Amino acid sequence: MTPPTAAPDTADLRALIQDHFDRSGLMRHLRARLGDVAPGRVHVHLPYGPNLTQHLGYFHAGATSSIADAAGGFAAMTRAQPGHTVLSVEFKINMLAPARGESLEAVGRVVRAGRTLTIVQVDVYALNAGEKTPVALMQQTLMNLPEPA
Description:
Blueprint: H1 10-22, H2 25-30, E1 33-38, E2 41-47, H3 61-77, E3 84-95, E4 103-113, E5 117-128, E6 131-146
């Protein structure tokens, strides 16, 4: 077993996650933004846009699920060994309320970081006029693997 290594400092961790986030074509397409980054925790923000809605004008569950998957994945990546990354294996998401507001915020939090699998919980909130309403809850499993060369 490989001995644990020192965690990167906050600035290095932020730079690593930002680099990977910036390479995500879907996050660019959705106009999502990376928020807070800390070991085991990542926030992703999604501003409202009419191209992100379903037929009633709420954020589409696909957009909600996409930023939840990203927040969870990047949270898991903050706990990955140097030279490793993560890949989603499965997730389950519950929509708790209609996702309506000025933006969404997905907060990914590592529950358990293992050698092979990492388990993450993601809370998604709708932000509107200073109010923060829970709209989705996700549990996600990710596999740890070496970063491609």
